């Protein structure tokens, strides 16, 4: 069909445009066969041109239209006279408007005419990049349409075919191009868009339809050359290459291969085709099918029962030339290696491990027995494929044995002919790298050292001895190939995997130094640095943060040095990327190094500004966590640093650089507030969480902040938090509007935090009531999860702090309840902390018998927990607080210490503290100090207890010894003396009536800004006045009372006098005689001291 493309040039005048259009119309008018189609197209174009050119063109167009109608009418009349019905050139459905490609694809099958089909064919003649998916869909629609015509049309087209080879091969070429581009880039995604398996199925459908239309139906609409062996070969190669991403592509490649067997006219297989199919099978470890396919095309069957190399002839019409089958055997050996890896990954079971070994032995049999028997050339690639299977399973010794057999296989007679003792290896460095990887992946402890020896031989070019198979030669020394970058990185990863961070750093330093001096030496890449940094992150080295920062600084320094070198632009040292910074930040977060984390964050932000990296919110989160766990500053300073970072994040969210912050970011800030006890800030932040809804952790952290605060109303404010979640106030019912059911139903975190707050305040009764109400809420369906072990632990801790007379009995009831729930099959199991808290209650009550029986029960393994030093310490505490005599108590404590296996009572700080308290109770100062000297890690509390022991000692020189010990405490740099230490020395003066020394010590305490006196300080000084029996003691005691009230008025709440202080002052005034005091004297003293009630019971 004749066609003239109408392209309007950039003409200057309307007259010139008119001449061009008029010429086109005149030319098409003279060619009546092609005029009609172009007339239809121009009918849509000319209305717009008419407004631009003028009314003269419209008149000319009307004249041409009238001439065309007259010519069409004359043609119809002439055809009827001849008895011929002209074939319609167009369908009425397409005569009005020109449809787009997408419109035609959306039409039902059978609704297109030849013109529409031709348009579809023309649209796939030239396929642009990344458009193969659409072209494949168009080709499939063309074939469906032609197949429909063949089924319903009686007339057959006699002129040229519509679908031609150029259309089919254009689509296949585009698909192949996209596949190879994806393969080159290494992208693990669909090369044809979304749904790779669907596109593979479409390709199978296209080839099937082509075969049916060309071979079976012999369609006149399809050129016979549209389906031949080249088309099938093309499809086979495409699906084989695509199989690296999609498993179904492997089945498609096998399908096309079988289809090609029926269409091939040659007598030999193309090795590239067979190799592609075998590579497809090897990718997914389908070794049996790969072996069978290779046997089929080679005409041979490999013996599977032994390694004798016996083969059986197999008749096959088309053969593969053995001289060109090297790559095919590489694929089969690689398939067996992959098969072994697939089996091993399923389950770590000895039987499956044996199956993996069998799979590797089959690949080894092909390499060592089958290929030499057939005279096939063995390449380094084949050997590397076999060794790679051993590397993936970490079979180092087996890999080295196979390497030795391969070395002997290449040229065994060479060792007999030459008299020299050292021979260079016939294998390349890839094979040796696989052996290195085998040792590095092994789980055996000494395999990493074998890898180290092999690597050293490769670096230093030292010969390695292997066992010889030649009778006259015992061992053969082979010089391995020189180590390359893969060798260094493999050993480096092996060190990191084995936790040998020091050796990994040393190897990395050697690579960095060598690359700076020798331009050909292996240079460490980002992956090398990242492996070492991640190994440091996982290690437990105390200096891991400093070493990590040194590595990053070294990378920056090396890169700065590269900028001044002009001749070495292609070899530049790597610069820290985001993965390295994030790994380093994780290490800082783990070790609580907030300062270093902020330094890394600054470097990261300078490298990746917000305009390019909004995901740096992860870095901010890690820095905030680093401050949360930091011990470099106090809790409040850490919270302030986190608060600054949080406000910075909020600013970036407001500017649109970041997505809205999730609840985890808020919880990090709340956690810092909770640790610092900043309850006001925690509650304010919880109120600000409007767009981001708080979860159960958020509410529990606010309660934790209240618990760690010193606010007297912390308990009532914490109850308000629980009320906001829907917890009932008193006995009132809970309305559905007054609670947040998602938080209230899914977690008991807020309840446990509340229980811990009550435990810290010693409010045992409220804690017990809350625990009981949690069970009631579960029965009512308001809580999905009932109390856990942590809930019981908190209530028991509260009972241990409350000092109620019946707290031990109530604790027993709770523990018994928990044990019964455990025996009934519940998920609750009593923990060691539960029993330790119960023992603490026994210790406070002095119930030594019950405490010892529970301790013996824990020792005898009646319960699934084992006692620790806290358990023993609490038992000793019970003995100390009991009424047992000195000899009996000491004997029982020594027996308990011997019973606890694995614990050194002389050096354990908890057990030693309770033993020292026992010595202090009986005034055994010498024994207490002797035990103190035996301790290796004695702390301030142990020295303080010894001071108390000297205070109660009957030794005449007890005060001097206590003073000497106190001077030793002052000289100790690790000790920061607190008020309890000063009270220990003051007690020595108080009990002995040494007033002058006591007053000097109190005066020293008052002048220390870091220590605040309390009511106990003044009480002991008053007792010193009483014990000294000084005549001026009453007046001096009243002066101390005024001093206490003055300090309390100035803000020292701990200096407020209590009943104990008033009792001591009254005894001092009465010279210790308070038994025979009259009521009148009581009233007089109460008025004198300005107290409202009598303090002495």
Report on the architecture of this protein:
The protein is mainly alpha-helical and 1097 residues long. Helix content is 66%, strand content 2%. The chain contains 51 helices and five strands. Strands 3-5-4 form a three-stranded mixed sheet. The protein has a two-stranded antiparallel ribbon with strand order 1-2. β4 and β5 (475-479) form a beta hairpin. α7 runs antiparallel to α8, α14 (326-346) runs antiparallel to α15 and α31 packs antiparallel against α32 (714-725). The longest helix is centred in the N-terminal third of the chain and has 28 residues, at 55-82. The radius of gyration is 46 Å and the shape is elongated. Mean pLDDT is 81; it is low at 1-54, 84-96, 188-194, 303-315 and 731-743.
Relevant terms:
1097 residues, mainly alpha, 3-stranded mixed beta sheet, 51 helices, 2% strand
Task: Tell me briefly what this model is.
A hairpin with a 7-residue loop joins strand 4 and strand 5. 66% of the residues lie in helices and 2% in strands.
Outline the biggest β-sheet: 3 strands, mixed
Rg calculated over all Cα atoms: 46 Å
pLDDT averaged over residues: 81
The tally of strands reads: 5
Number of helical stretches of at least 4 residues: 51
What quaternary form is this? single chain
How does the overall form come out from the CA principal axes?
Answer: elongated
Helix content: 55-70%
Specify the structural class. Answer: mainly alpha
Strand content: under 5%
Question: Strand order, biggest sheet?
Answer: 3-5-4
Distance between the termini: 124 Å
